[in-house]
Amino acid sequence: MPHDLPPAGQPRRGEANARRVEALLAAARRRRRLQRLLPWLIILVSFLAWEVAVRALEVPAFVLPAPSAVAESMVKWWWPLLDNAWQTLMTTLIGFALAIVFGLLLGVAIGSSTLLYHGLYPLLIGFNSVPKVAVVPILVIWFGIGTVPAVITAFLISFFPIVVNVATGIATVEPELRDVLRALGARPIDIIRKVGLPRAMPYFFASLKIAITVAFVGSIMAETVAANKGIGYLMILASSRFDVPLVFAGLFITGVMGVLMYALAVMVEERTTGWAMRGQADQNVTPLAGA
């Protein structure tokens, strides 16, 4: 028997392992397809259950409109909804952009300095504990009714998560790593720029996904109190006429805008900090022992 031939069972084991790899890859592809379809399926089932429940219980439209009535209201009032939604989106994005700039700068400063960390944190926590709806009348006194109070409210309500997460990401750099970098001649600014900021990026994008959703809350909160345009203003106007389907249409438009902005933040996060999330992709495929 020639010595260069493999044992009799080895080719079959190799073929079996190859089939197992193919099966696992196919299962991973099916799982990814299901993950993409699952949100839409859940939304569809939820709306169908809502429609059936309202019709079966004969709930009046001024109490809880069916999704079909909300859709009719959206078609009927599509231009006011679009115009006011654009106003809300612009005020939210302006306030959110200001929160990113100032939150990132202050977060880096607090995370880099122990004195600032202990000195400013009580002030930030105390200010964040104040209900922002109580601040809106003060903003109206200072700036009048219009866009400015909505922008500032969106900024105030989305500022705190960014500061806290960025400061946490920079402050939790290992002391041993700092000591090694100092021994190699790195300056404090070099440690922050080359180690602290990259480490804080996952925290930063996690805060963005929170901040963009609460920024819409701030804008609409201010628009319901002191504005002459926007989704919040439109919802208050509709509720005064008992046009509840239009109120729900405004809620639906706001939810869609929030989901789209959240998805945009996730897309940017995956492109810039994909290295921090690579372990999630590895969980979909189980490694083969001895493959």
Report what the structure shows.
By secondary structure, the protein is mainly alpha-helical. Helix content is 80%, strand content 0%. The protein has eleven helices and no strands. It has helices at residues 10-57, 67-76, 78-112, 114-129, 136-143, 147-171, 175-183, 188-225, 231-240, 244-272, 278-282. α8 runs antiparallel to α10. The protein is flat, with a radius of gyration of 27 Å. 28% of the residues are buried. The model is unreliable at 284-291 (pLDDT under 50). It holds the Pfam family BPD_transp_1. Keywords: Cell membrane, Membrane, Transmembrane, Transmembrane helix, Transport. It is a multi-pass membrane protein.
What's the topology here?
Blueprint: H1 10-57, H2 67-76, H3 78-112, H4 114-129, H5 136-143, H6 147-171, H7 175-183, H8 188-225, H9 231-240, H10 244-272, H11 278-282
Helix residue percentage: over 70%
Overall mean pLDDT? 81
Distance between the termini: 27 Å
Based on Cα principal axes, name the global outline. flat
**Derived structural class:** mainly alpha
User: Hey, roughly how much beta strand do the residues contain?
Assistant: under 5%
| Uncertain residue ranges | 284-291
Q: How many beta-strand runs?
A: 0
